[in-house]
Amino acid sequence: MKWLQAADAQGRVRLGYLDGTQAQILRAPHQGIETTLDLLVAIDERGLMLEQWLASARSNNAFDSVAWRTLDAGTNSAWRLRYPVTPPEVWGCGVTYRRSMDFREEGSGIYDRVYVADRPELFFKATASRCVGHGEAIGKRSDSNFTAAEPEVAIVIAASGRILGFTVCNDVSAWDIERDNPLYLPQSKVYLGCCAFGPFLVTPDEIANPNALMLTCRVTRQAQETFSGSASTADLKRPFSELIACLRHSNPVPTGTNPLGVKGAGEAGITPATSAVIGAIADALGVPHLEMPATPERIWRAICEARP
Fold it and tell me: Which CATH number is correct for 90-271, 3.20.20.140, 3.40.50.10190, 3.90.850.10, 3.10.450.50?
């Protein structure tokens, strides 16, 4: 299934699921279950039978049928889309991806060493209050001049470590702060609006092969695409199971926790930092578009072509 969450006019968050072109949203708590996290905990820790619960909720007319397109567009007057699960914790797993040469740190730097080490990079990313959902604005630190989007696959796990679902995530990061000193990583990673994910939590039964998921990122400026990149989970350095096991070493995590599974740490081929720099140069020059790389010749040519 594809689970989602929406908030009503009073801000109360309810679980829902996609049913064709309709979203079925729970009007009120049913059998003590109100949110996606309530449902996941009940299934994993209390042995709730999902099909029986759904049948009961449907027979009691507990769902409000809403056109998905209105939720997606943010035009529904009764419901506002939120992230698909309210995470107790969000953790990141760093430098697990096959690095792009455009971002690779040459030599024997810390990223190179952790990439081949037995122990992966793990870091605390966010609480629910620091997360935003589909269509909501991401955050930017006021003391950072280089905020980068980091598109990733995120997994939702149970306290037992079992994978409960998959979603897509934007691990927004203040790269200039981290690059100034690695000890500043928490400041680079954790702040208001630093993690965006959704709109759906897709259950494992709908994922044919989690080791072959294709992730694509596109950046558009003024209705023009300035960046496009793709990567596959087939290129992960470490499997999901290893990352989950390392996360849970002497560190119990509650059901609904989101570890970020595909993490480039500034080196993944789908991290659009370069396009952000190119966009900033184009804006400063007053030109509509600038091809990468931004060589002096290309900059000069763009200026000349933009002159009346």
Answer: 3.90.850.10
DSSP 29: -
Distance CA(98)–CA(263), nearest Å, equals 10
Partnered with residue 77 across adjacent β-strands are none
Q: What average pLDDT score do residues 2-9 get?
A: 96
Q: Is the pTM of this model over 0.85?
A: no
For residues 65 and 229, is the Cβ–Cβ distance under 8 A?
no
Q: Where are the domains of the chain?
A: 2-80, 90-271, 272-308
Please, what is the average pLDDT of the chain?
Answer: 83
Closest CA to 133 of 79, 74, 84: 84
The residues that bridge with 170 in the sheet, in sequence order, are: 151, 196
**Tell me, what DSSP letter sits at residue 192?**
T
Q: How high is the pLDDT of residue 38?
A: 95
